[in-house]
């Protein structure tokens, strides 16, 4: 190793050190810690090693299974819809026409709002009879629903709200991705008389794949991360119909003070998030043509 | 033809997206007695600021604003420093274990501190930091997202500039200061806006680690306030309070919108 290389190595690690230190204390250490705790049952602050017993119990717990199903369903619906919507929006606000920046702002502002503020606003939109949605439906003589009180509707109501919040954020990444596309290819496609939808499917969609990979990871993580609204809107109810994994962790840890189960649930959430990332990288990375 | 149809579609979609904000604004100036009787929820009759006054006098806004500003500023300041350093290392230095380090940083993108509320709470307890603003800030002092964002834009700077400044006798931090920082300002603005809005919005973590008005941020304060209301007659006060919480974000976005969107469009994220 030359002197220069040694110097570069030292400098690099010195520069990485502050970030690494905080990552170690608040990301890596807690992950190891929570993994360790998940094998202990604690009653009255006495810890007892129980192996994988808690995991077995959790996977037989109906509340957990319901929460897990809710969360997976929420991700399966909101992630693809908000990504497709974001692509559509990006393609059509990617110009310098008058008013375009205003439309872009309309799509983007929900991203900036705290989930708590969004919950306050949408709670009133979904209020039965007097809420904005029921009033709007009333104009067409349609019957409103108990959007947040009915187990059939509550998760769907949450999905609509989340798509509204997220789509504009992903749009920004696609706007960035679209800038990098080669203009000549599009000119050639226009000469060949490609229809707009064909052009999107055959050109734009594959070409923005790297952006999609990045957005998929953020979107999936967010569908497990965004739970603040539950605190205001439903507390996970009715009967856990809108409960999500992270909120369930919050309840288990800070309402029931069940350390063992809170650890198990956290580990499960970590595994889910890691699994999604690995699948996305593994499957999509190979199909991306740089 | 399809152009016009899609343009109209996009405009309608934009209006649809605006509705919740417009409705909130209108509701916040509607007098309580008109709240449920009004037929058109977007018409403003007898506009009043009474809701704002009531919200301001019931919620200790000055304390909450100060707390949120301190927290948001405290996080951003440290993040800029740590992310700049790490981004420079990743963008311009070659070192052993570079890809392993990269993956370690990537872990935080996949598993953000928000997910680790439970173990991090007990770490804060061990550090005796419960119910302090430090507890809210410290877990976010490293930002892998910031590192990747800055690294990407550092990489666009021609390497020759870097070398020539070295030949001129600049040390690495001088190069960083005189060449890298000035040419990546839009990225810094974008990152700052994202960081500020993220931490202005953060709720669950501050809810868990704080327990007093003196340390609570706006989001926790307003959530506790909103919980005490059930009836439609109070909509005005709650929407007014909500607007008081979000207006700084909306104003900041309004001013920096162009820079924000463009910085993303130029930097490109891959």
TrEMBL record, chain B:
Keywords: Cell membrane, Membrane, Transmembrane, Transmembrane helix, Transport. GO terms for biological process: transmembrane transport. The keyword Transferase does not apply. Signal peptide: none annotated. It is found in: Cell membrane. Gene3D superfamilies: MetI-like. The chain crosses the membrane at residues 7-26, 69-90, 102-122, 134-154, 175-196, 235-256. It is a multi-pass membrane protein. Its main location: membrane. Residues 65-256 form the ABC transmembrane type-1 domain. GO terms for cellular component: plasma membrane. InterPro entries: MetI-like, MetI-like_sf. Belongs to the binding-protein-dependent transport system permease family. PANTHER family: ABC TRANSPORTER PERMEASE PROTEIN MG189-RELATED-RELATED (PTHR43744), LACTOSE TRANSPORT SYSTEM PERMEASE PROTEIN LACG (PTHR43744:SF3). This is Carbohydrate ABC transporter permease.
């Amino acid at each position: 190793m030359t002197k220069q290389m040694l110097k570069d190595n030292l400098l690099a690690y010195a520069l990485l050190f502050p970030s690494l230190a905080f990552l170690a204390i608040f990301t890596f250490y807690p992950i190891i810690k929570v993994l360790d705790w998940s094998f202990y049952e604690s009653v009255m602050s006495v810890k007892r090693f129980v192996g994988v017993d808690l995991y077995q119990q959790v996977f037989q717990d109906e509340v957990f299974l319901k929460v897990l199903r809710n969360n997976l369903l929420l991700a399966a619906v909101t992630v693809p819809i908000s990504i497709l919507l974001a692509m559509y929006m990006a393609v059509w606000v990617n110009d310098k026409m008058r008013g375009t920046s205003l439309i872009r702002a309309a799509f983007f502002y929900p991203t900036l709002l705290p989930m708590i503020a969004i919950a306050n606003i949408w709670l009133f939109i979904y209020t039965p009879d007097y809420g904005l949605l029921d009033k709007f439906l009333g104009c067409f003589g349609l019957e409103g629903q108990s959007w947040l009180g009915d187990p059939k509707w509550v998760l769907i109501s949450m999905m609509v709200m989340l798509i509204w919040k997220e789509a504009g954020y992903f749009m920004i990444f696609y706007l960035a991705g679209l800038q990098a596309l080669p203009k000549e290819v599009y000119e050639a496609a226009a000469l060949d008389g490609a229809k707009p939808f064909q052009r999107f499917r055959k050109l734009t969609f594959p070409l923005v794949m790297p952006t999609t990979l990045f957005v998929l990871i953020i979107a999936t993580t967010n569908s497990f991360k965004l739970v603040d609204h539950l605190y205001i809107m439903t507390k996970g109810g009715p009967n856990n119909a809108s409960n999500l994994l992270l909120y369930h962790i919050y309840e288990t840890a800070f309402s029931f003070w069940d350390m063992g189960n809170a650890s198990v649930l956290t580990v499960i959430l970590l595994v889910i998030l890691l699994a999604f990332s690995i699948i996305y990288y593994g499957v999509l990375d190979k199909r991306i043509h740089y | 033809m399809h152009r016009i149809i899609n343009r109209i579609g996009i405009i309608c979609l934009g209006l649809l997206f605006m509705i919740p904000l417009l409705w909130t604004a209108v509701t916040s100036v509607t007098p309580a007695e008109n709240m449920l009787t009004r037929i058109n929820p977007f018409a403003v009759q007898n506009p009043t600021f009474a809701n704002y006054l009531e919200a301001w006098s019931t919620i200790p806004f000055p304390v909450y604003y100060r707390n949120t500003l301190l927290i948001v500023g405290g996080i951003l300041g440290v993040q800029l420093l740590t992310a700049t350093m790490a981004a420079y290392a990743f963008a311009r230095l070659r070192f052993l274990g570079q890809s392993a380090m990269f993956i370690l940083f990537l872990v935080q993108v996949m598993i953000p501190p928000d997910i680790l509320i439970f173990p991090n709470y007990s770490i804060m307890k061990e550090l005796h930091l419960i119910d302090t603003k430090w507890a809210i800030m410290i877990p976010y002092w490293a930002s892998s997202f910031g590192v990747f964002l800055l690294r990407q834009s550092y990489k666009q700077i021609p390497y020759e500039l870097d070398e020539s400044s070295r030949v001129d006798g600049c040390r690495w931090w001088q190069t960083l200061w005189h060449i890298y920082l000035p040419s990546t300002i839009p990225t810094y603005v974008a990152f700052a806006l994202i960081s500020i809005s993220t931490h202005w919005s953060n709720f669950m973590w501050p809810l868990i680690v704080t327990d007093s008005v003196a340390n609570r941020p706006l989001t926790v304060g307003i959530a506790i306030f909103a919980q005490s209301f059930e009836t439609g007659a109070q909509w005005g006060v709650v929407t007014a309070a909500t607007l008081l919480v979000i207006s700084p974000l909306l104003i900041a976005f309004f001013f920096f919108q162009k820079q924000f969107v463009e910085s993303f469009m130029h930097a490109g994220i891959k």
